[in-house]
From TrEMBL, chain A:
Compositional bias per record (Basic and acidic residues), positions renumbered to this chain: 65-103
One cellular component (GO) term of this entry: ciliary transition zone
Species the sequence originates in: Accipiter nisus
SUPFAM superfamilies attached to this UniProt entry: C2 domain (Calcium/lipid-binding domain, CaLB)
Keyword terms of this UniProt record: Coiled coil
Domain (C2): residue spans on this chain: 970-1130
GO annotation terms (biological process): non-motile cilium assembly; protein localization to ciliary transition zone
Bias (Acidic residues) ranges: 149-173
Pfam families: C2, CC2D2AN-C2, CEP76_C, CEPT76_peptidase, DUF5523
Protein known as: Coiled-coil and C2 domain containing 2A
Top-level taxonomic group: Eukaryota
UniProtKB/TrEMBL annotation, chain B:
Subunit: Part of the tectonic-like complex (also named B9 complex).
GO CC terms in record: MKS complex
Major site of localization recorded for this protein: cytoplasm
Keywords: Cell projection, Cilium biogenesis/degradation, Cytoplasm, Cytoskeleton
Family as reported in the entry's similarity comment: Belongs to the B9D family.
Known function: Component of the tectonic-like complex, a complex localized at the transition zone of primary cilia and acting as a barrier that prevents diffusion of transmembrane proteins between the cilia and plasma membranes. Required for ciliogenesis and sonic hedgehog/SHH signaling.
Full protein name: B9 domain-containing protein 1
Organism: Accipiter nisus (Eurasian sparrowhawk)
């Protein structure tokens, strides 16, 4: 339609005016210039078109005809004349066109730059053209006659106007002109609009004609290939060339043709065709088999294709490597097993004759087989040929074969000849022997038949004689012998030569040796010293024998040998050749003629029958019919079994059964049949005979010889033989062939079954058998032979496999790799991996190694990781086995620490595993099903008063420790009040020495004479306040203090807030549980001193110096707070035994009459409330889980006992859920142990008992103190709150570390050992939390002992830290507290009352007498005094260094005098256990340090490590004093108790010199 | 951040929005999101977690709840391991007006730069028993994960049973910096202008 624009343009020119006309209303919008330009554009377009028309002068006619379709059919009556005139008209217009061309030329010169624009204009025209067909038709109507010319005219008009325009100036004149144009058109249209015209109607033929112009109907005929192929090319078929071309998607041929025709119409249509002249197409993407499992609908009335089809059940037999799965089920596979019959070679019912006959038959078979092979003949021929060859090569050597080659081959030939001869001789001998045996057996049969007077077998042997020519035969025989002799002679000669050579060399050697021998002998005479050597030599020499020369072979001898041999194994010359022939033509004696025994035998045989079972994969699949055994012991079945199989056959077995009469069936033998190769198909399979034999022993009472029974053919019974039942099954096994000739063989893969014709090539299994699949070599070989198309994607996997296999000579590695792809995924080599610090860091972090567990942002580059990161870790690894005595000061303790560390690590490792096991409750928060009680309670709550008079603490929401960071957790310490704070001593100048008469009064602690000057004392006395205590809480080196209160019973009620930082910023439960930090609550006295006492200007201003004096402390481990969520109660303040300058106020107001033992524990108390904000959920679940896990470890307890324990626990906890019932615990080995096994009377150190022999009370105190001196190490710290491990007392004493349970157990055992009544209390105490105490019965009242402090309390002591009692444990029973209350004050400890105490062992379950796991007796090491002294010195040194370290800006002076004084005091303190000596001490001190103001105190601690000592000293804050002239004194005393239990005393004091 | 020119960290800037959710039968839902990332990742800018407005179903699209809740966060990291995941949990009132969880879901932030849309299938933990189910329905305290971040990890999930509950569509615009310099080439080789790749990833068929 290239003509489109050209004919549109003229019309457009006519239509052009409306554009300006529309714009005329908005005249101002268009500048004249613009409109002018438009006109110019139009004109130029027109000009171009005209030019185009003229250039292609032959075309206008055709163009016109196309263009004027409309007018054509409107003027269907228009004559040819019209057209003719039209042509003329065209010509007539030429001049004007020429003129226009000129103008265009001019115009173009003027405005060449506009060349690009007309397209827009054209487009405009083009689009408006269609809509403005009316004016055209109007015009057409107006000039009916020369309508054909109208356009030319219009053109002319336009041209004229354009010419005008160009001639005129491009000014306002133009506007007028346009107006004229418009007017002209309007004027014309005004009348033309009204012209009517008939409705358009096209004739059908016209329409067709028109459509033909438009439409193209592609032909359905095939396109000749020449059109599809470019030029002179031949179509090329890739498939024929062997390249893989996929299957093309199916398109019907007609459609394909249509498409081809259509494509060919296009330009470059040939690109769409491939080399083979077909349209290019990708392989068919549709899979032949559906990948989705079919959906079966059970509903009725569904589409038939969706209906369910009954299928036989497919057996799914698992555990088969070649299981043909139901997914790619190809149909049944079939094995045809043809069992034709059974022949017994021996049967119990064989008569003697049968035996012989069977033997004969066997021999005959053998003979036939040999004859068929005819080895003798073959070898003889070969021998002849070889001999000829040798002769030829010797004789005609120069003629044909080159000399050296022939020479070389002769010895080879000779060797060959020898071998062949030997073989032939052997074969000949065998032949001859066989023949002889056959004849012998036949003779036996004959004689037997004669003997027994009947025949049982139809066998007959004929010997056919073949006469030979005697002379020829003899000649050949002789020639043969001669040849053999010659050869042998030759052989012998060779051998002789060889031996001769050997002999010569040996002789040579012998001679030389002889010579040396002689010379040595000479030497020997000279030198006696070398005697030994030469003797040795002589010994050697004597062994040598002079070699014997070989013998020459004798030809006569050889000849004799050869002849002898020939006689033996060869037919004699002239003797006829014997050919045996076995026939079954003999007649069997009928039964009537036989003797009785034989009749019986025959009847027995008749009774017998046999059948065969077929077992496939060890399962019986079918069996033959039972057929009687015929008299010749053959059974014919002739049955074919078709086995449809689903599994790859593993074994195929036949079982041969014999039935006797009606009843008994015996299994004779089993025969395994090989599974046929896939090439063995039914029809082509040969019959095979498979031998079987049975070791059954059968003895018969008739003529039958039986099986496994020896019998003899000889009359005298000699030459016995024993035969077993044996026989042959003739059968054939093959793969069946299906209806379409498809073998029903399990395929190797789905794809390959479709092509049955090429099955052998494609199916690997079919051609090489299944075993070949695992043999890469075979597979590769097959692949090469099968010539697989390497381009076929179906074969891709196989090809790759084969390529791998063949590239390395099909070498199969002789190892098996489990993760064969691992190598590919290793992104760096192992060495590099190990070398890289980054990978190491990542690995360690992944392994949750403590140091790296929370390492953030492992640097990307190796260089950014400093070596230091690993230093700590490596150090730890190294130190694991190195005992570091520096840190622990004591070798034993270092060992213990090491041991504990190891136990800890192993437990932590277990824990880490447990941590990764989640319970549902760890992941999902699910509300408990509310019980009725809870519902009722919540209902009750509604009625609660809004502001109760006694408000209770509300449970706060717990926070899991997952999304916490530094600063999120705060420790809240609420200091409420304190009681009985020591008060300052009233300062008196002189006081009488206090008497020691009564210790129940505290006022005996009269102050020693004060060093203060008498001048000060009145002043001091006036201002005297008893004490101004304040509390300082220090935690993680953060210190917070309360305000100062006054008096010995101060009331602060202040809340202190301390931030908490978890170690390494790890806020996981596990980490929090292992925080070892303690909260120190120190009570101080604030003392104001006048700073300048001697200041002359005293009156004008007072400067006071604030001093603080430590009074006591309470330590609460963080873990306690963490586990209990809050610590609330009144605690005893740990006040040092000696507080210089302070005394306890006499508590006259408080009367505790019932408290007879209380006096010992009298002291200061402080009421505290400590909690963590926000409340953290302690990792109880993990702990419980770990316990559960540990319980799964082996136990030595009886199952019954454990069950009873579980039941007991469940019963108890169901009644009192808050009370913990303990029946079994875990020992250090992780085994579950029944708790009473820990309780057993044990002997305390004799030393302690000897100390105070008469007082059992003091002895008990001493023992308690000893136990308390064993360092305390909570399990929750060492084992990170994972589990509670109980060590036995000896373990405990060895480790010298343990928590409350161990202390309590030991103490309890000691008390029992001392003859007291003692029990273990499992309960809850503050601040420890769940703990174990010891209860003793002393003079009809119960005393509660705190094993970790050594303190004891009466049952009714209000300050007893034990708050709740859950259960009591004795050495033979457990009692659970069934009373309403569990506070020791409110309960009855009488365990004999079953209502109050539920016992574990009762009448129902008597105590089984569990053996204790404690040792019989504890053995104590004697106290090592020397070591203690050494340790003492070291600790003192360390502490002094530390104090100096803590005072970096001050000079720390040590007062040696004071130190030595203090050192003298400490043993005294130890002796008196810190009691009753204060007065002496004070006095002594004051006496010696008269002019110093001393403040200080001794600290007493059990010794475990140095760190806690340092911590304690630091928390006392003695070093904080910053008076310029302060001096310090520090003394350490260590008292060693048996078993290395060390009691450490640290006396630290600060001295300020008084002026 | 070595001077040598090879950087020590790479950056991942994610912005986008939690566009909409499809929770048939539920209405008036809001969602929370948070990011879960490995130890080597540090958010440098933007919000790690957020909570959206409550949105109601419209008559126009009665199955879609539109939040259009913006996400904007930048991470820096030294290790692609622990690549950030966004964890979305959707809550809304139940029959009694209790605020219950309507779904948890998580998806990794796409690692190829460009615009991505992900549709997350959401699920809720199931009650352990029928009675529990009833009581939890009645009391409005349905089982919830102790921490929504559980859904971003595999450990321990075997003890839970969940029910699927709807879908949330999130669009991400991912910008990475220095990934390629550090040897992590995540963009396909044939992709010249990643932003022009059609956004047809994620679970659209269900």
């Amino acid at each position: 339609m290239a003509a489109g624009p050209s004919d549109a343009a003229p019309q457009a020119l006519r239509d052009l005016p409306p554009v300006p006309s529309t714009s005329r209303t908005g005249f101002a919008e268009f500048s004249v210039r613009e409109r002018m330009r438009e006109k110019l554009k139009a004109a130029r377009a027109k000009a171009e078109i005209t030019l185009l028309q003229e250039d292609r002068s032959p075309r206008p006619r055709r163009l016109k005809s196309i263009r004027e379709r409309k007018t054509d059919f409107r003027l269907d009556k228009a004559s040819d004349n019209d057209k003719f005139s039209e042509m003329q008209e065209d010509e007539s217009h030429l001049p004007s066109k020429m003129k226009f061309r000129d103008s265009v030329k001019r115009h173009k010169q003027k405005s060449t730059f506009q060349n690009d624009f007309p397209s827009a204009e054209e487009a405009y025209n083009f689009f408006t053209f269609n809509f403005d067909s009316e004016p055209e038709s109007i015009k057409a109507g107006a000039r009916k006659r020369n309508e054909l010319n109208e356009e030319e005219e219009a053109e002319e008009e336009c041209v004229e106007t354009h010419e005008d325009e160009q001639e005129e100036d491009e000014t306002d004149e133009d506007a007028r002109l346009v107006k004229d144009d418009d007017l002209f058109i309007i004027g014309q249209t005004a009348e033309d609009f009204l012209v009517m015209k008939p409705a358009d109607c096209e004739s059908y033929s016209e329409q067709l004609k028109k459509e033909k112009e438009f439409l193209f109907t592609p032909s359905m005929l095939a396109v000749p290939p020449s059109e599809k192929m470019p030029g002179n090319m031949q179509p090329r078929y890739l498939e024929d060339e062997g390249l893989y071309t996929g299957e093309r998607p199916f398109v019907s041929q007609s459609n394909q043709n249509i498409l081809e025709n259509r494509i060919l119409r296009q330009e470059q249509g040939k690109e769409w065709f491939g080399d083979d002249g077909k349209i290019l197409a990708l392989p068919n993407p549709i899979k032949q088999s559906s990948t989705r499992p079919p959906i079966f609908s059970l509903e009725e009335g569904i589409a038939p294709e969706l209906e369910t089809v009954y299928r036989k059940a497919i057996k799914m037999t698992a555990a088969n490597q070649y299981l043909v799965g139901p997914g790619d089920f190809q149909g049944p596979f079939q094995l045809d097993i043809d069992i034709s019959g059974l022949i017994f070679t021996h049967h119990p019912c064989f008569s003697r004759e049968h035996v012989l006959a069977a033997k004969l038959a066997q021999l005959y078979d053998q003979y036939l087989a040999r004859k068929q092979k005819n080895l003798t003949k073959l070898l003889t021929d070969k021998l002849h040929a070889l001999r000829n060859a040798v002769e030829c090569s010797i004789d005609g050597g120069d003629a044909g074969v080159p000399r050296p080659v022939a020479q070389q081959s002769i010895p080879e030939y000779k060797i060959e000849i020898r071998q062949t001869r030997r073989l032939r001789d052997a074969e000949q001998e065998k032949d001859r022997m066989l023949l002889k045996t056959i004849i012998k057996v036949w003779k036996q049969i004959k004689s037997l038949r004669d003997f027994q007077k009947f025949t049982n077998t139809p066998m007959k042997l004929y010997l056919r004689k073949e006469e030979v020519d005697q002379r020829l035969d003899e000649k050949a025989y002789e020639a043969e012998i001669q040849a053999e002799i010659n050869e042998l002679l030759e052989e012998c000669m060779e051998e002789y030569e060889k031996k001769m050579k050997e002999y010569k060399t040996e002789l040579q050697e012998w001679k030389s040796w002889k010579k040396t021998q002689k010379s040595k002998k000479k030497k020997k005479k000279k030198d006696i010293h070398e005697e030994e050597e030469s003797v040795e030599d002589c010994d050697l020499g004597e062994e040598r024998v002079k070699p014997i020369p070989p013998k020459m072979a004798n030809s006569l001898e050889i000849e004799q040998q050869v002849r002898e041999k020939a006689d033996n194994c060869r037919r004699k010359p002239g003797e006829p050749a014997l050919i045996p022939e076995l026939v079954l033509s003999g007649s069997v004696t009928p039964t009537e003629l036989c003797p009785r025994a034989e009749v019986l035998r025959r009847e027995d045989v008749k009774k017998r029958s046999a059948f065969i079972k077929v077992l496939f994969n060890a399962k019986e699949v079918s069996r033959t019919v039972t057929r009687p055994i015929s008299s010749d012991f053959r059974v014919h079945f002739g049955q074919i079994f078709n086995l449809q199989i689903f599994n790859w056959p593993e074994s195929l077995k036949l079982q041969i059964y014999e039935t006797m009469g009606m009843s008994s069936t015996t299994l004779l033998a089993e025969v395994f049949i090989p599974v046929p190769e896939t090439t063995v198909l039914t029809g082509s399979a040969p019959m095979e005979e498979i031998e079987f034999s049975s070791n059954q022993r059968v003895m018969l009472d008739h003529e039958g010889v039986g099986s496994g029974v020896s019998f003899s053919f000889e009359a005298d019974g000699s030459n016995k033989m024993t035969l077993m039942t044996s026989g042959k099954v003739s059968n054939s096994v093959s793969w069946a062939v299906g209806e379409k000739g498809i073998p029903l063989i399990p395929p190797v893969s789905q794809q390959n079954t479709g092509i049955p014709s090429a099955l052998k090539n494609i199916d690997a299994i079919a051609s090489i058998g299944t075993s070949g699949l695992t043999d890469m070599k075979k597979l590769a070989k097959w692949a090469v032979e099968a010539k697989l198309d390497p381009n076929d994607p179906n074969n891709a996997a196989l090809m790759q496999l084969i390529m791998v296999a063949t590239s390395g000579e099909a070498r199969v590695p002789d190892f098996f790799r489990l993760e064969q792809l691992q190598q590919e995924f290793n992104f760096v080599s192992d060495e590099e991996f190990n070398r890289s610090k980054r990978f190491r860091l990542l690995q360690l972090r992944n392994g949750e190694v403590a140091e790296f567990r929370n390492y953030k942002q492992v640097p990307l580059h190796e260089r950014e990781i400093s070596e230091k990161i690993f230093e700590d870790y490596e150090k730890r690894l190294q130190e694991r086995d190195v005992i570091d005595s520096k840190n622990y000061l004591d070798a034993h303790r270092a060992v213990v620490a090491n041991y504990l560390q190891k136990v800890r690590e192993s437990v932590i490792n277990r824990f880490l595993i447990a941590k990764h096991n989640f319970l549902l409750s760890d992941l999902v928060n699910e509300e408990e099903i509310p019980s009725l009680g809870i519902l009722g309670l919540s209902l009750f709550k509604l009625a609660e008063p809004k502001r109760p008079l006694k408000p209770r603490r509300k449970e706060r929401k717990k926070v899991t420790a997952q999304n916490l960071s530094d600063g999120d957790i705060k420790l809240l310490v609420n200091i409420i009040r304190a009681y009985d704070i020591p008060v300052r001593k009233p300062v008196m100048s002189k006081l009488p020495q206090p008497s020691k008469s009564s210790r129940s009064f505290n006022d005996m602690f009269a102050a020693s004479p004060s060093a203060q000057s008498p001048m000060d004392s009145p002043d001091w006395a006036l201002n005297q306040v008893l004490v101004r205590p304040f509390v300082e809480v220090s935690f993680q080196r953060t210190v917070c203090r309360t305000t100062t209160a006054e008096g010995p019973n101060p009331n602060w009620n202040e809340e202190l807030e301390l931030p908490f930082r978890a170690p390494n910023g790890d806020y996981s439960t596990h980490s929090l549980q292992s925080v070892k930090d303690e909260v120190f609550i120190n009570v101080f006295d604030e003392v104001l001193h006048d700073a300048v006492e001697d200041d002359p200007e005293r009156g004008s201003g007072i400067r006071t110096r604030v001093e603080r004096h430590w009074l006591g402390c309470v330590k609460i481990p963080f873990t306690t707070i963490y586990f209990q969520a809050r610590v609330d109660g009144t605690f005893k303040v740990d006040v040092p035994p000696v507080l210089l300058g302070y005394s306890k106020e006499k508590n006259l107001g408080i009367e505790r009459g019932y408290d007879s033992v209380q006096n010992l524990s009298e002291g200061s108390y402080i009421t505290l409330f400590i909690t963590i904000e926000p409340q953290l959920i302690p990792g109880e679940s993990v702990r419980e889980k770990m316990n559960e896990m540990l319980k799964k470890f082996d136990t030595q307890e009886e199952e019954k006992l454990l069950q009873a324990a579980a039941k007991y626990e469940a019963e108890c906890t169901s009644k009192f859920p808050s009370r913990k019932c303990l029946t079994t615990v875990i020992d250090l080995n992780g085994k579950t142990v029944f708790i009473t096994r820990y309780i057993k009377p044990l002997n305390p150190p004799q030393e302690l008992l000897d100390a105070i022999p008469n007082s059992s009370q003091t002895a008990a105190e001493l023992v308690a103190r000893y136990v308390a001196l064993i360092p305390f190490l909570p399990d929750s710290v060492s084992f990170a709150g994972i589990c509670d491990l109980w060590s036995t007392s000896d373990q405990f004493l060895y480790l010298l570390a343990g928590d409350e349970e161990e202390h309590a157990v030991l103490l309890c055992n000691y008390f029992l050992g001392m003859g007291k009544k003692a029990w273990l209390i499992i309960g809850n105490a503050i601040p420890e939390g769940p703990t174990a105490y010891v209860l003793t019965l002393e003079q009809s009242q119960y005393v509660i002992w705190n094993p970790s402090t050594g303190c004891f309390y009466g049952q009714y002591d209000t300050f007893c830290p034990l708050q709740n009692v859950y259960c009591l444990i004795g050495c033979d029973n457990i009692w659970f507290n069934m009373q309403e209350y569990d506070s020791p004050i409110r309960i009855n400890f009488d365990i004999s009352k079953p209502k109050l105490w539920k016992s574990f062992f009762s009448r129902r379950l008597p105590y089984p007498g569990l053996r204790s796991i404690q040792p019989e007796e504890l053995v104590y090491q004697h106290a090592d005094k020397a070591a203690a002294v050494e340790l003492q010195g070291r600790i003192e040194k360390i502490l002094k260094e530390k104090i100096m370290e803590w005072r970096p800006r001050h000079l720390t002076r040590w007062n040696r005098y004071c130190t030595s004084t203090l050192r003298n005091f400490l043993p005294l303190l130890e002796q008196n256990q810190g009691k009753d000596i204060e007065d002496d001490h004070q006095a002594e001190l004051q006496k010696q340090l008269g002019d110093y103001r001393v403040s200080g105190f001794p600290i007493h601690m059990p010794f475990s490590e140095v760190r806690p000592l340092i911590e304690a000293v630091h928390s006392m804050g003695v070093h904080t004093i910053d008076v310029s002239n302060v001096e310090f004194a520090l003394a350490v005393y260590i008292h060693a108790y048996p078993q290395n239990v060390l009691s450490v005393w640290i006396y630290i004091a600060s001295l300020v010199r008084n002026r | 951040m070595a001077a040598a020119g090879s950087p020590g960290v790479f950056l991942l800037a994610v912005n986008g929005q939690i566009e909409s959710g499809q929770f048939p039968g539920f209405d008036d839902l809001y969602c929370k999101f948070c990011f879960v990332y490995g130890q080597d990742w540090v958010p440098t800018a933007g919000l790690e977690e957020g909570i959206s407005q409550i949105t109601s179903k419209s008559d126009v699209a009665p199955t879609t709840l539109v939040w259009n809740f913006p996400i904007d966060i930048t991470f820096k990291s030294t290790n692609p391991s622990g690549w950030p995941q966004i964890v979305v949990s959707v809550y809304g009132p139940d029959f009694f007006g209790n605020d219950v969880v309507r779904g948890y879901g998580a998806v990794h932030v796409p690692f190829t730069p460009g615009r991505h849309t992900r549709t997350i299938a959401m699920f809720v933990p199931e009650s352990t028993s029928r009675l529990q189910k009833f009581t939890s329905w009645f009391t409005g305290r349905r089982p919830e994960f102790t921490d929504p971040k559980v859904v971003a990890q595999g450990e321990g999930r075997e003890v839970t049973r969940v029910r699927s509950q709807g879908f949330v569509t999130i669009s991400f615009n991912v910008v990475t910096k220095d990934m390629k310099k550090l040897g992590y080439d995540v963009s396909p080789s044939d992709m010249q202008n990643p932003s022009l790749v059609p956004v047809t990833e994620g679970i659209h068929k269900y």
